[in-house]
Amino acid sequence: MKPAIYILCLSFVCIVCAPVSFAHKYHTSVTRLEYNAEERSAEITIQTFTDDLEAILTKRTGKVVHLDGGKDSGRLVLDYLRSAFELKLDDASSELLWVGMEMKGATVWLYVQAKLPEGLSKAKLRNALLFDLFEDQVNIVNVFNNGRKSGLVFRRGDDMKEIPR
Prior knowledge:
By secondary structure, the protein is α+β, with helices and mostly antiparallel strands. It has one domain (25-162). The protein has 3 helices and 10 strands, in the order αββααββββββββ.
C-alpha cells in the first residue's frame, strides 16, 4: 500500500473509531418540567450527552450532524424532540416550541416549552429520547408543579405516563 493511502486509511479509522473508544458507559437524560402558571405553559429543560444526540440525529438524517455550528441544528433537534417527547392533555398533544440550546462540556441542554392553559393536573408524558439508539437508555423527568416536586422514570418500552399531581 502506498504511504499516502495508508495514512489516509489510518486517519479515517482514527476519526471514525475515536468517539466509540471514548464513549461514556451509561445512557441517560435528565429533564426538568416546570409549569409556569403566569405564562400558562410548561417550561422544559432536557440535559443529555452531546455525542448521543448527534448520533441519533445522524441516524435519522443519514448525514453526519454536529451540534456545535450547524445552521440546521435547532430545527433537527426540535423535529427529533417532537417525535420522541410528547406532552398530552385530554388526548391532544401540546406542540413543543423551540427556545434554544446550550452545549456545556460533554452535555447539551435543550430548552423548549409547551402551552398548557389548563395546567399539568391531567397531563400525560412520553419520553422516548434515544430509546431507538440505546437499549439501556433511562430518561429521568423531574416535575415541578404548584410548589411540589415529583418524578418519572422512562425506560425502553414505556409509553405515556400520568404526571403525578
